[in-house]
Amino acid sequence: MIRLEGLRKSYGKVEALRGVSLQVSPGELFAFLGPNGAGKTTTIRILTGLTRLDQGWAWLDGHDIVSQSLAAKRTCGVVHQHLNLDSELTVEENLDLHGRLYDLPRSFRRRRIAELLEYVGLLERRGSLVRQLSGGMKRRVMIARALVHQPRILFLDEPTVGLDAAIRRRIWALIRRISADGATVFLTTHYIEEAEFLAQRVAFIDHGQIVALDTPQNLMARQGVWAADTLHGEELRTRYFTNAEAAKRELAGHEGGFTLRRVNLEDSFLALTGKKIQ
Amino acid sequence: MHGWLPVFLRELKIMRRRFWRMLASMAVSPLLYLIAFGYALGGDQGDGQAYLAFLVPGLVAMSSMTQAWGIATDINVARFYWHVFEEFQAAPISNPAYVLGEVLAGVARALLGVLVILGLGLAVGVEVDLGPCFWLAVGLNSFTFASLAVAMAMLVKSHADQGMLSSFIITPMAFLGGTVFPLERLPGWAQALTEVLPLTHASRAIRAAALDQPSPPLPFFLLLGLGLACFFLAVHSVNLARE
Q1: ∠A234-A255-A266 over CA atoms, to 5°?
Q2: Closest residue of A to B85, CA-based?
Q3: Could you report the per-residue pLDDT of B187-243, keeping only the tens digit for each?
Q4: Residue A277 placed within a domain
Q5: Domain ranges, residue A235
Q6: Could you report the per-residue pLDDT of A25-84, keeping only the tens digit for each?
């Protein structure tokens, strides 16, 4: 469904992508996890036609994104990191113009827009100007807009960045629903819990390269099951254990105590790259 | 060429929301020109022609240029501030379709600006001949500058660059393009220089048509050629706007 081979992109002397290859299966919910500047947004921008690639190949639903760009664009919807709605237009007008860009018939657009606004819980705000909406509502409008033409692939670039915890969870529930309805979802995030909660597979990206790709469970299991954080002066050290009792026994005498928690994706990323994501 | 209509409609919807503000801002500059040049400095040009009758077609040319060029600012804001341009880049529409939609929006703005001038002209007692040659000249002028505006909006890298282009291209042309004074009063070398400005030819064609004088075909062909060249430049520039 989504296939990338040796994707490379440079901005001047800065290499944003250094040979990214991966494959996402139909219906999969896939997350690209990495710190800011790792190359996540560049990948989505290339796949959605916003940025030119320097080298490599990519296919969306079998369509080459360079030689069959219009066909490739028809297969996907994209929710950009920036809020890029027309603030002077209403919610409905934003969605309708999107439908027109994809050449959808009027009757279909009307029905689909009503369905989607119901889906994202904004049907009663269809006539509101976008500038009158909160940040969370705007994000939901963007997700609805990306779904108007029934794309088989949905790209979400940092879909919950800047949103508070409650809204973030609401967006997560929406993304899960979209995935359950059959769309392939390609998500970028630098929120650990977002990738853990949503993704069926996760790729770690750092300095434009994929450093690991697996299910969240397998990635975390590489470190163990339990992580114990201890403070040594001003330095925080983490040790990993497969057994909580073993961790408690070994660290019982540690001066200053310790915090025992489940291993998360941040631990795996840290082990692979030597740095934290957030 | 699917896709030009939603691009055009988007601009029209935004124009509708801003209609009265736009109309007021379109009237301010021409009104000042009419007062300052028409009444304070104007009078008879010496050939029996009232200066206001000379000025109003010039303002039509100027306004159709500046309003068509104004689409560049809207694109610029949509591109760098609201990021709405990304929506068009990600959509399955061709570059010519995108450019056509924006150019037509620029032409629509220009026609609105022209109607404002014609209304102001009527208010000061100047009636112009609104025959096909008049509208053809206005349309070609608007098309040329809207196409140039789209091309430049794709090539600039920031809001500041856009402002600088206006200062270097539009402001000099507005004054030296035969809009507010007869170019024959300039020295020979200066007259020759003004011949390279597209607005000079647009003013000539629009004024001749407005005053019901014979319209030479050359300005029409020049504007058509230049307009098409700018349109193709704009189509090519859309690719350059991608990173």
Answers
A1: 50
A2: A84
A3: 999 999 999 999 999 999 999 999 999 888 999 999 999 999 999 999 999 988 876
A4: no
A5: 224-262
A6: 999 999 999 988 899 999 999 999 999 999 999 999 999 999 999 999 999 999 998 899
B6:A100 CB<8 A: yes
Smallest CA-to-CA distance from B191 within B179, B203, B200 is with B200
Are residue A209 and residue A228 in the same domain, yes or no?
A: no
Give domain status of residue A153, yes or no.
yes
Chain B residues in contact with A78 (beta carbon < 8 A):
90
Best of B7, B86, B93 to substitute, by most chain A Cβ atoms within 10 angstroms, is B86
Does A100 sit within 8 Å of B92, measured CB to CB? no
Residues A145, A210 within the same domain? yes
User: Is the CB of A93 inside 8 Å of chain B's CB atoms?
Assistant: yes
The answer on A172 and A252 residing in a single domain is no
Amino acid at A42: T
The answer to whether residues A210 and A257 belong to one domain is: no
- From the list A85, A137, A92, A133, the residue with the least C-alpha distance to A113 is A92
A157 in the same domain as A38: yes
Indicate if A59 and A94 belong to the same structural domain: yes
CATH of the domain at A203: 3.40.50.300
Residue B229 neighbours by CB distance under 10 Å? 14
Is residue A188 assigned to a domain?
A: yes
The helix (run of H) or strand (run of E) holding residue A33 is strand A29-33
Query: Min CA distance, A23 vs chain B (Å)?
Result: 21
Cβ A89–B83 below 8 Å, yes or no? no
Determine the distance in angstroms separating the CA of A88 from the nearest CA of chain B, rounded to an integer: 7
Residues in chain A: 278
Q: What is the pLDDT of residues B165-184, one digit of tens each?
A: 888 889 889 989 999 888 98
Q: Is A87 on the interface with B (CB under 8 A)?
A: yes
Residue ranges of A 103-132 with Cβ closer than 8 A to chain B: 103
Using the Cα atoms of residue B9, residue A146, residue B70 and residue B195 in order, give the sign of their dihedral: negative
Asked if B153 and B236 count as a contact pair (C-beta separation under 8 A), the reply is no
- A138 contacts chain B (CB < 8 A): no
Q: Where are the domains of chain B?
A: 4-241
Number of structural domains in chain A? 2
Q: Are residues A202 and A239 in the same domain?
A: no
**Contacting residues of A for B92, CB less than 8 Å apart:** 70-71, 73-74, 101-102
Question: Does residue A91 sit within a domain?
Answer: yes
